[in-house]
Backbone:
């Protein structure tokens, strides 16, 4: 039976698939991937639930504009090759998006089925088709580079925005070079997301497709130090800035400089990129902690507290100043954290990190909160409850309040217009105040999601292609490496 033979009523009668998961007792002591992926039969049955509605609201809800009904129809017909082709045409990182994107508030929230029941599991199906393509590694799935356009593009940052822009521009024939500050590719995908949510082999395979399109990647290049933006502008016909927002937002409370206090960026980078806590010979070790407190309520906070649990914390706590209903973290991540024994200490705000006489962290002083009227974010504002102060014992405290723009690059370019948060200002096409320079991702938005950064990369790439093919906008200078 195929999806085409089912009536809408029959489709709606099919229950939504449940993602197979690694047992919570097993996974909380290792870094194996939690979600195990759908079988072919599960994927086909879930794809049959799609009503193939004419309005396609799910496509409108996708920041990168994947033709969702088309790839789902292909899965329903067991034509996995066609499904993979549709995905890779629209999305440079489908196996990544199928794992970490918040589909429940994007494409799935727009699904017509969700009005009377559960929406189609679009994210699970995207992962299935993308994983099928990676497993089969068929040349017929891969995008092919067209004849060279004679134009060159420099991309700063090999994260989701940069990778997306690189793929979009390469398939249009432009010579693309990505300059990455770290020693490996993927940006926040590699250093910010733990292995149990996004295995490094998936990042490696997704990024490797860029080489097939002729994209060059130069690591260990810090634009603003190793090379200037001005030099890149001189040597390339266009530049896309996608270096992220890697500067932590500090707590602003006494004791945050004590030993045993980490920013989420440092903590996750040491573990995810450097192997701290997992590799005994790691050159950048980490304090494991017996009692660990993570401050924040987003996906990064969830990643930190779940990592701490896997590194042996007997007590891993998440302190958040609002209630669970206001948490920005994905519902799935919150549920997984609970299953793994994470303590959610809600309506609680930190006021001081407590230390011992040797300068080591020994606890976190907290203020009890209550919810007041909604603030600018639409969430109810946390208000202190007078006299309700208590202490939590902790030998490690992790600040996961978010990040802002690192001024290393922007401070060297006074003509590059910034907003009051020091993020780069762009127009609707991603163009900055500098001719031929575009930007996207967290350097524009502040800390945001992978898929929104990818949407920025795709939108900017389209505008950059128009810029590059306008004879009056570029001299067509030949490709040149900015690093000798």
Residues:
């Amino acid at each position: 039976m195929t999806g085409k033979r089912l009536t809408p009523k029959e489709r709606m009668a099919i229950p939504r698939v449940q993602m197979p998961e690694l047992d919570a007792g097993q996974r909380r002591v290792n870094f194996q991937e939690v979600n195990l992926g759908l079988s072919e039969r599960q994927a086909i049955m879930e794809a049959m639930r799609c009503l193939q509605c004419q309005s396609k609201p799910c496509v409108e809800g996708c920041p990168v504009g994947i033709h969702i009904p088309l790839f789902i129809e292909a899965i329903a017909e067991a034509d996995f090759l066609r499904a993979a082709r549709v995905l890779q045409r629209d999305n440079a990182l489908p196996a990544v998006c199928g794992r970490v994107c918040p589909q429940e508030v994007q494409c799935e929230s727009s699904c017509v089925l969700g009005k009377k029941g559960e929406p189609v599991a679009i994210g699970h199906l995207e992962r299935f088709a993308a994983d099928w393509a990676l497993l089969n590694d068929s040349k017929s799935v891969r995008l092919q580079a067209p004849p060279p356009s004679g134009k060159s593009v420099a991309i700063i940052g090999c994260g989701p925005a940069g990778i997306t822009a690189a793929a979009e521009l390469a398939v249009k024939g432009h010579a693309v070079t990505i300059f990455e500050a770290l020693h490996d590719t993927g940006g926040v995908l590699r250093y910010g997301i733990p292995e149990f949510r996004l295995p490094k082999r998936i990042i490696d395979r997704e990024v490797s497709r860029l080489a097939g399109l002729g994209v060059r990647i130069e690591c260990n290049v810090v634009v603003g130090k190793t090379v200037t933006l001005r030099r890149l502008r001189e040597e390339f016909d266009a530049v896309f800035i996608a270096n992220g927002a890697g500067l932590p937002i500090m707590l602003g409370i006494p004791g945050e400089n004590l030993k045993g206090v980490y920013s989420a960026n440092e903590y996750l980078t040491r573990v995810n990129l450097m192997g701290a806590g997992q590799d005994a010979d790691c050159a950048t070790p980490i304090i494991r902690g017996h009692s660990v407190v993570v401050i924040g309520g987003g996906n990064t906070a969830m990643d930190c507290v779940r990592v701490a649990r896997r590194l042996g914390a007997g007590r891993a706590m998440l302190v958040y100043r609002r209630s669970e209903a206001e948490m920005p973290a994905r519902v799935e991540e919150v549920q997984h954290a609970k299953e793994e024994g994470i303590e959610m200490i809600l309506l609680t705000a930190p006021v001081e990190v407590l230390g011992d006489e040797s300068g080591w962290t020994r606890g976190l002083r907290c203020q009890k909160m209550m919810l007041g009227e909604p603030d600018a974010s639409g969430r109810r504002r946390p208000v202190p409850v007078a006299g309700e102060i208590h202490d939590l014992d902790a030998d490690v405290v992790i600040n996961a309040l978010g990040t802002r723009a690192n001024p290393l690059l922007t401070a060297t370019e006074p003509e590059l217009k910034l907003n009051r948060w020091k993020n780069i200002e762009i127009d609707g096409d991603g163009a900055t105040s500098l001719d031929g320079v575009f930007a996207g991702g967290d350097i524009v938005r502040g800390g945001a999601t992978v898929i929104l950064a990818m949407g920025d990369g795709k939108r900017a790439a389209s505008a950059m292609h128009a810029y590059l093919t306008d004879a009056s906008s570029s001299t067509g200078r030949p490709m040149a490496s900015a690093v000798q």
